[in-house]
Structure formats: C-alpha cells, structure tokens
Design goal:
429 residues; alpha/beta; 4-stranded antiparallel sheet; 14 helices; 13 strands
C-alpha cells in the first residue's frame, strides 16, 4: 500500500471535482420569455382568476402531477413552505403531537412548532437510514395528529408499513420527499403514498430552480387548503365559502413565473440527470463492496434510489481509525471540489447534525415561557437530547459518510479516483 498523502505520499487525485451545473440555453430562453412578457408573478391573494397564479406556475403543476401520477400538484416557493402548509392543511394545533425524524433538514421537525404542536422524534433504520416503522409505533399516542416521514438520500421510507400504522390510528402523513426526483416504491412514485407528498427544487437538488417546492395529493380538500395557505387564505375564505377556518391564516408561499419557467425546463431533464447518478452509483457499489469496513447503500425491497447523495456505512473497528480521521485522510488524497463562492458539500462528507440535539429542543424553548411544551392543552411528556435516537446519533457521530460527486459530467474514471482514495485510506494500518 502506497504512503498516504497526509503523511507525505502522492495523492490519488490532483484535479478538483467540478461543480454540478444543469442550466443551458433552454433555461435562459425560458427566463427571457417571461421577462419579455412583463409578468414575473401573477398571483393575487383574493378570490379571483389569479388565486392559483400565472401560466408558468400552473403549467409546472400540471407537468409535475402527470410525472408523479397524482390528481393535484401545488407549487410553492420552497419545500420548506410546502411542509409548513401541509401541517396547516392537516389541522395540526395546540395539544397535538407530530412524529418527525431527527435526520433531515430542520424544517422536517420544526414545522409542527409553527402551529403550536409538539414534535416527537422517531429513530431511523440502521441499514436503509429512513425512519423506522417500529420506532414510529413506539411514538404513537392518543395525541398523535400527523407524521413527517423523510425519504432520505433518494429512496422511499417503508411507506407500506407506515401508512398501515397511520390508517390504523387515524394519523395524517406528509412524505418529505425532498431528495426524490423520480424514484418509485411499490408501483408508485415515492412521496405519493402519503396524504401529501413534498418535493424540493432547491439549488442543491438534482433538478432545481434556485428555490422552489411542490406538494402532491389526491385529496381535493387538502389540495385546496394548500392553495389557500400558499396565498393569503384569510382574504379568500369568504369568496370561496370555506366552512372550516382552522389554520387558515395564509402566507405568501407563492412561486414566481421566473422560477416556474426554469423548473419546467429542469423537469424535462430529470430522467437523464437521475439516470446518470444511478449509473455512477451502481459502479461505486460494485467497487466499494470490496473494501473492508465500508458498506454501500442498502436499497429497500420494492424501491428505487435517486442518489441525491450516496451513503456509505463506516466501521471504525475494521478500518482502525475514527471516521473524522478517515475523512481527513481521504480529503488529503485530493478528493475535493472546486470552490465556487462558498463550498457547500465536499465530495465526501458527513451528514447533518441530528435535529433533536439542537438547543431549540434540548432547552424546549421556542415561544415565551417554554410554549408549546408548557401548554395546558398538551398533556404528554417528551424527551430530547442524547440517547433519544441512538441509531441516528451513531450515524452522525461514527458510522456514516456520504459521497456527493455522482453527477454529470463526472464519469467512471472519476469514480475510480474516489474508490482508490477510499481503498488506500481504509487499507492503511
């Protein structure tokens, strides 16, 4: 085994990985066409023909509903907005509990707080890394109103088991499918098994329009409530003769025509972009499976994987150094990304800090006086902090890293560099 670069040896790679770029003349023309038309947003927060927004927004919604195979799609300015609106549409409120994951973007756990409900954290599966059905089962109480289930890294959670639990207990389910672009599960697109599915068009996703999100549902009432919450519901309820006013103080979650125009062009490319990731990921799996101490992604039976990130399980006992030192040595082998402004995600890195360890939860401080945990309407008891979700905590602290460099224009030759660096470091004793 050659000398590690961190100790003065020759690095595996000397050329940084290029950033991910998917825009071309099609997005340029789409934006120019909107600007030439002088209508960059066409929403009005009132009961009117403009309540549902402009032509591009509605075109995107029709395109995504057809892609997802759902009756409705509702575009918003972010997936964060979609998740907040979904909690409102479900009628979440004081005294309620919402089961959430600690291993995601924070809004996947904080959205219930906006409606004064209490988040309860369920742990993850140690192999597929999505939320565990058995952990969810232990979290259900008579106060459980909803769940936010994350399709982590690009494959569906066990929605068959989760929806069975939800239907048994009358619980509404949001599928936070921000990492999904087209992956299926049990014959349907991931995200569409839930009462509401949420997808992201954020700049770090496989397809993007800068900021944007799309909700899907087959439920007419939920779709309308999402539209109301997107667009100043309080101004619209009289005109639309809405009877149930629960949570219908609306927001401005509206997507512009510019974002929608870009998103439409991105949707047209999604199969090519995802298939490239899948091809490189399959190549990585073949190679990494031969490296002692590293375990490639486990794909759930009946599921596909979109590989927004490629997760690898790490065994310190086999490799002989802790994960932080392992990644430091891999970085020294030249597995780096070109910096464009600020570097967001290096080619090989850890994942986010578990949400239940944040001060917001460990100190139970959101609104004044510890509300909603001190709300008399809530009669439960919940713990946060270390030990609550041991699987996720171990993934974060010790046993998981991800590979983000699996996008076009990268090739199998680039994957060979990643594999060579991983094998070189893992094999050093």
């Amino acid at each position: 085994m050659s000398k590690l670069a961190i100790f003065g040896g020759t690095p595996v790679r000397t050329t940084p990985f290029p950033p991910y770029r998917t825009f071309d003349d099609n997005e340029m023309r789409a934006v120019q066409d909107v600007i030439r038309g002088h209508v960059v947003s066409d929403f009005i927060g009132a009961c009117s023909p403009y309540f549902k927004g402009g032509k591009k927004v509605q075109e995107l919604e029709e395109l995504w509903a057809a892609h997802a195979g759902t009756k409705h799609a509702v575009a918003m300015n972010s997936a964060t907005s979609v998740i907040i609106a979904a909690m409102g549409a479900f009628g979440v409120g004081p005294g309620d509990e919402v089961i959430v994951t600690p291993y995601s973007h924070v809004i996947s756990a904080t959205a219930p707080l906006i409606y004064d409900a209490v988040p309860v954290f369920a742990d993850s599966e140690p192999d597929t890394l999505c939320t565990s059905v058995e952990s969810i089962r232990k979290c259900i109480t008579p106060r459980t109103k909803a769940m936010i289930i994350v399709d982590l890294f690009g494959q569906s959670a066990d929605m068959e088991g989760i929806m069975a639990l939800a239907n048994e207990h009358g619980i509404k389910v949001l599928s936070d499918s921000a990492h999904i672009t087209k992956a299926g599960y049990k014959g349907k697109m991931a995200g569409t098994h839930a009462h509401i599915g949420s997808y992201s068009l954020n700049a770090h996703k496989t397809i993007q329009c800068g900021e944007g999100g799309i909700a899907v549902t087959d439920d007419d009432d939920l779709a309308f409530r999402l539209q109301l919450l997107r667009n100043h519901a309080e101004n619209c309820v009289e005109g639309y003769k809405v009877q149930d006013l629960t949570n219908l103080i609306g927001y401005n979650f509206r997507m512009t025509e510019l974002e929608a125009a870009v998103a439409i062009e991105q949707v047209k490319k999604l199969h090519t972009l995802v298939d490239h990731r899948r091809t490189l990921s399959a190549y990585l799996t073949e190679k990494i499976s031969k490296i002692d101490g590293l375990t490639p992604p486990v794909i759930r039976e009946g599921a596909e994987h979109d590989f927004l990130l490629y997760p690898v399980l790490y065994d310190r006992d086999v490799v002989g150094v802790d994960r932080a030192e392992f990644l430091r040595r891999v970085d020294a082998e030249g597995i780096r990304m070109v910096k464009v402004g600020e570097e967001h995600v290096p080619p090989v890195s850890t994942f986010v800090r578990p949400i239940h360890l944040l001060p917001l939860f460990t100190q139970k401080q959101f609104r004044p006086n510890g509300y909603p945990w001190t709300d008399p309407a809530w009669t439960g008891d919940v713990a946060y902090g270390p030990g609550v979700c041991p699987v996720v905590e171990d993934l974060y602290e010790n046993s998981l890293f991800t590979i983000s460099a699996i996008y076009p224009p990268l090739t199998e030759r680039d994957m060979d560099d990643i594999v060579e660096a991983l094998a070189k470091v893992a094999g050093a004793k």
